[in-house]
Specification:
Radius of gyration: 17 Å
Oligomer: single chain
Distance between the termini: 50 Å
Order of helices and strands: EEEHH
Helix content: 25-40%
Length: 84
């Protein structure tokens, strides 16, 4: 019996306001057959620190987060009341 654990980013989505949603899947594989799968989701907002993010996530963020997108997101955030 051979068990392996596979952790990969399987989905990167861009939301209208520039937020990046990232889904990571953890699979447990036994003798070539997937026996378990679990998802973890996170989101990154325009201009957020990308330290410790995988290279493919950083590449998408860098492509999407133009100075205009970051400025528009920050302006929108400044107009949103806290706690909403």
């Amino acid at each position: 019996m051979s068990l392996t654990k596979q952790v990969v980013i399987d989905k990167i989505e861009v939301v209208e306001n520039g937020t990046i949603q990232v889904r990571q899947v953890t699979r447990i594989i036994e003798d070539g057959t997937e026996i378990s799968k679990q998802y973890h989701r996170t989101s990154l907002t325009p201009g957020q620190d990308l330290t410790d993010q995988p290279a493919n996530v950083v590449a998408v963020c860098n492509a999407v987060w133009t100075p205009q997108v970051i400025a528009a997101y920050q302006a929108q955030a400044a107009q949103t009341p806290q706690g909403v």
